[in-house]
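Hey L., structure's done. Input below.
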Amino acid sequence: MNSMLSRRGFLRLGTAFGTGLVLSANSPRPLAAAAAAASGAPEIFSAGQWATIEAMTSCIIPTDHEPGALEANCVNFIDKALAREDAALLPTYRAGITAFIEESQAHFGKPFAQLRVDNRNRLLSALEQGDTLSWPQNLAATPQLFLHTVIVHTLIGFLADPGYGGNRGYAGWQVVGYPGTEHHMGGYSKEQVEGTAPVIPMWKTDRSG
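Output:
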C-alpha cells in the first residue's frame, strides 16, 4: 500500500461523505479557533505525540503533486480540537498513541515518525486489519478505533476553515476546488449565481492563510 489514502481515494471518500463531511468540517468551533489564533504550539500533544500524529496524517492524505495533510497542518487542527470542542476523544488518543508507539517499536524497533514511508504504511495497514503485536487486548481504544478516529480528524482538518488550525494556506480547499464559504466573500452576486461572472476562490484573494 503506497499510502492510506491516494488522491483519487480522497476524492472518492469526499464524494461518499458528501455534504455531511463538509458540514462537519465547517461546523462552528469557536474555542478551537481562538486557541489556533493564539498559538500554533502544541496544547495537548507532547513533542513525540505531535510527531507521531503528524506522521500518521501525512500517510492518510499524502503529499504528491498537490499538498497533503502535512502542508495543511492537520496535526495542529487535531491538537486544538482535542483541547477544546473534541475533548471527549482525548481518552481514545491518549490510550491509542501510547499503544501505537509501542506497536511501532514492536514491529520496527523505532518510533513511528522515524520510519520510512513504506514501513509507516505497513504499520497503519496492520492496525486497520487488527494484525498487532503488542496492542493491549483489553484497551478500549482498539487499533481500528484509534486509526479511524485519526483518519476522520485528518479529513476534517484538511477541509475545515483555516481558522480552526488546519487547512493551512487553504491547501485542502485548493485540492477539492472549494472556493470558500460565501459569507467570507460577502455573498454571491446575481451574476455569480447565474454563472455569468466567476467565483473568485478565497485563496486567490486572501494572502493571510
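The mean pLDDT is 82. DSSP finds eleven helices and no strands in the chain.

-- N.
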